[in-house]
Specification:
The chain has about 230 residues and is of the alpha/beta class. Helix content is about 40%, strand content about 25%.
């Protein structure tokens, strides 16, 4: 099972964001997508997700649509969403597997909640971090093999960040994970290869090479830019 991208050009309306991207990823891989605001990070993973249904010659999926779960940065719950966390997860299973037994769906949902350390409480009471954990729990519940996560730690408290990080590590061997991240400390913590998008070019770096490149930019940039980059 793999994902191959060959000479892909990513555009936003009339402007080119990324030129000639080549990438090959397999189950068990994790890739961090990094770059400045507006460089095309989120656009890239949205394109990956939509390409499963609308085939693109440049993107070849060795996974089915049901294998892939996309968790966008902003994911407000619909007003018709059930009141409690467990209801939301059970409904997710019923939508994807209409003939699932409701008691089995509930049992599996509670099992997943324990795994992500999330209590069964009203959705209205969930913090930003808990909402992110719920979306990841939903992905796990649907047996996702590919996780496309856009800023999963954004607006998340430290405790939830640690829980999400631990969860992603536990399931890494069984999944392909692609995360859009901007926080330098988060990227260092993940210790994974980085796809650095800069000036329409995408460069894959080892964690060590990524850190050296960031360090070089820090020392050669103006003070104002350095302060923005490193104040986390």
């Amino acid at each position: 099972m793999n994902l191959s991208i060959n000479n892909l050009t990513v555009k936003n309306q009339n402007s080119v964001l990324i030129k000639n991207l080549n990438l090959h990823l397999e189950l068990g891989n994790r890739l961090i997508v990094y770059g400045s605001n507006g460089c095309g990070k989120s656009t890239l993973i949205k394109l990956m997700f939509h390409s499963i249904q609308k085939k693109q010659n440049s993107i070849e999926w060795g996974f089915t649509f049901n294998d892939v779960q996309y968790v966008p940065q902003e994911n407000p719950f619909h007003s018709a969403t059930p009141d409690y966390v467990i209801d939301f997860l059970v409904k997710s299973q019923n939508l994807n597997f209409p003939f699932a037994k409701s008691h089995l769906a509930s049992e599996k949902s509670f099992e997943i909640l324990k795994k992500v350390e999330l209590a069964n409480k009203p959705l209205s009471q969930l913090s930003g971090g808990e909402r992110q954990k719920l979306k990841i729990a939903q992905a796990l519940l649907l047996n996702a093999k590919v996780l496309l996560l856009d800023e999963p730690f954004n607006g998340v408290d430290q405790k939830s960040q640690t829980q999400i990080y631990s969860l992603l590590n536990r399931i890494q061997n069984q999944t392909l994970q692609i995360l859009v991240l901007h926080n330098l400390l988060d990227i260092r913590k993940m210790n994974s290869p980085v796809l650095w998008i800069e000036n329409q070019q995408a460069l894959i770096l080892s964690p060590q090479d990524w850190f050296r490149k960031v360090d070089q930019q820090f020392h050669h940039s103006h003070c104002e830019h350095a302060e923005v980059s490193w104040t986390i």
